[in-house]
Each structure stands twice: as C-alpha cells, then as structure tokens.
Amino acid sequence: MKITKLEPIILHAPVTKGGIKDSTHSITHWGAPGVAIHTDTGHVGYGFSGTHAHLPTDKLIVDCIVNSFGPLLIGEDIMATRALWQKLYKSSEIYWVGRSGITHLALGAIDIALWDLKCKAFDVPLWSLKGASGNEKLEAYNTDGGWLNWSKEQLVSDCKRMVEEQGYRAVKIKVGGDSGTEDLRRIEAVRKALGDDIRIMTDANGRWSLPEAIRLGQRLADFDITWIEEPMGFDDVKGHQRLANTITTPIALGEQLYLTQQFRDFIQAGAVDFVQPDIVRLAGITEWWTVAELAHANNLPVVPHVGDMGQVHQHLCLAHPACHLLEYIPWLKDWMKHPAQVKDGYYLAPQAAGAGMEPTEHALATINKI
Ligand SMILES: O=C(NO)[C@H](O)[C@H](O)[C@H](O)CO
Ligand SMILES: [Mg+2]
Predict the structure, then answer these.
(1) Pocket flag, ligand 1, residue 108 (CB < 6 Å)
(2) Among residues 293, 257, 258, 279, which one has the least CA distance to residue 326?
(3) For ligand 1, is residue 307 a contact (CB within 6 Å)?
(4) Which of 67, 74, 97, 301 is paired with 341 by a 20 to 30 Å CA distance?
C-alpha cells in the first residue's frame, strides 16, 4: 500500500455552550488540523492534531504536513510506521527547526493517519492491532462540566447530572482562577453535592507559582481530591518535585510535554503520579506508546490528556495495561464517522476498522477551514 497524495484538512468544532475557560485558555472552538493520506489501493487514512482553533497556526501545521513532510512520504509503504516516523522526525532540515512544537503536531497527525491506514489494511480497530481483546474496561471521567467560566451553581448542577443521570463516577474541575479561596469554595460545593464516593480531579493548567501550589495543594486534601493536574509551569521538574514532596494530593501532568525524555525527567524526579501523554504533543501514536511503557515500567498509571483527542486515545487506553481511566470531552466526536461512546461511565470499544479520526462528509463540508 503506497502513499500517493496528502490532502490537508482543518476542522474547527464548536466547544460546549459556546465557549469554555480554564486558568490559562479561553476558547470557542477546538481545532483539528490534519491530513487525509491517499494510497495506490484506494484506501484513505485520516489523522489530526489538536489546537485551540487559531487558523493562522493551524495553517502552519497543515503546510508542514503537506509541503515539508509530504515529499518524504510519497511512494512509501504505509506499513513501515516506526521507520517512517524516524525518517520524518529525523529529517535534518525539519529537525533543525522542530524537535517539538509545530513540527511535532504535524508529524502526530501524519502518524495517526498512517496507523489508520494500517488498521484499514488489516480491517481492525486500532485497539485490536495494539493487542487488546476488546473486553477491557476503560472508565471515563468527565471534564465537560467543570470549566472555570461556569458559575458555582452551574458547576454543581452539571457535575450532579453527569453522576446521577449519565453514570460517571469521576469528574474534573478546573482551578487556577484569580482567587484560590474561590477555587476551594467551588470544590467544596461539588464535594458536598456529590458525596464521598465520587472521585474529583482538579486541573490548574499550569497557573500556580510554587508557594500557591503548596498552599492550595495542601487544602485539596480536605476534599479528598484524586489529583491536581498541571499545578505549575509545564517544564518545571524541580518545582513539581518540591511540590510532590510537600503535599499529599497526587500530581498529574503531561499534556504539554513533547519529548519522552521530559517524561523520564519528571518520573525519575518523583514529580508525577498520573502520567498524561498526548498523541498531539508526542508526535503521534508511535511515541505515545513509548511513554506509556516508560510510565508502566515505573508502576505509574497512564491517564492520557484528551483536550479532544479522545477518538484515538480510547483505542490506546483499551490496549495498554497502564491505562484504566480516560478523560471525556465531547467536542469532536459527533463530527467523526465513528463517535466515541461512553455508557454508564465506561468507554465502549469502537468496532470500526481504523484509528478513530475519520471525519464525516458533513464535517468536511461544514467545519473544514481549508
Ligand atoms: O487541560 C485540559 N484537559 O485536561 C483541556 O485540554 C484544556 O483545558 C482545554 O484544551 C482548553 O484549554
Ligand atoms: Mg489538563
């Protein structure tokens, strides 16, 4: 199955209730710059990155896909996913300007499309190609009711609905607002409303200084919080090591890390408890698997960031023994041919062949910005 053509796609999908905020970002759409890779057998593979729908940088990403990486792929056999990843990652002109950032987001979309093609060649879902039986249990936790721009009342009612009507046993709440005291009030209100059996995660999206993270991190223990995600600057290994040695609430991070070596440094420093690799930043499935193995070797659970890359992460989590839980955010799924499904708080194993990110004709006709 030889590659014949790369076709750029940029999807911009509306997010919940017209707009969501966390401590660091405020978005109205989730961006999915990506590619359709065509082959001489007529198969088409789809892969996307994940952004905050900033069109100028989405265009940089798809330009990198088609015009920088594209020429290196034409004529290549799609089966050689690891060899092709190495070839593209190490291509010196691109490596000189890349090694993380936009070239990683571009390579990630290509890698997902190549795995999509490989799955279609064997006519299996990605979880099956990665060795799962399809009977694995993968619990979902819901982030979509915990946004920082939700009022405390909205926060409580959304989280209650998710638990009482949709069967979730875990929800995530954004913290890192302007007032730490208000953060704690919001958590207290949700804990009171949900009772002690529901797990509550928190996510500061990198906002706090070390003193703030220590002060607020210590208070989280009052509410039995499952983890504090990205409490401080994304690359601050020493700071997170200091925090981990000071507070009892476990630390989750990884959605902003581009290199396996960064994950190694956080893990070796004892600065992370829940490892959250993302196929977007790690340049695709191939390197994601390396990080999951590294975490597993250190007996750390892997709970991938979704943002909204859940369509692919659900496959990887079903297949990897370090994964038992995955974030749920619903922004892209209904624009995909085979939308991710959660029932009574658990992901249902997708049955269609592929890696999960094949857009519908409707999506390509209505939210494609190319
Ligand atoms: O941190 C996250 N999940 O854990 C979400 O991806 C971000 O909050 C969204 O992308 C909005 O910035
Ligand atoms: Mg996060």
Answers:
(1) no
(2) 279
(3) yes
(4) 301
The interface pTM score, or ipTM, of the predicted complex is 0.97
Closest of 26, 51, 23, 46 to residue 36, by C-alpha: 46
The per-residue pLDDT for range 87-140, each reduced to its tens digit, is 999 999 999 999 899 999 999 999 999 999 999 999 999 999 999 999 999 999
Q: Mean pLDDT of all residues in the chain? A: 97
Whether 139 and 324 have beta carbons less than 8 Å apart is answered as yes
- Buried b / exposed e across 23-53, counting CB within 10 Å, b at 16+? beeebebbbbbbbbbbbeeeebbbbbbbbbb
Q: State how far the alpha carbon of 33 is from the alpha carbons of 44, 157, 179, 217, 357, in Å.
A: 16, 34, 35, 36, 12
Distance CA 353, CA 128 (A): 9
Give pLDDT, residue 307: 79
Ligand 1, atom nearest to 50 Cα: 10
β-pairing, 199-203 vs 346-347, is: unpaired
Question: 120: CA distance to ligand 1 center in Å?
Answer: 30
CA dist 73 and 40 (Å) reads 13
Q: Are 108 and 283 in contact (CB under 8 A)?
A: yes
**Selection from 244, 243, 162, 186 nearest residue 23 by Cα:** 186
Percent share of the chain, pLDDT over 90? 98
Amino acid letter for position 78: I
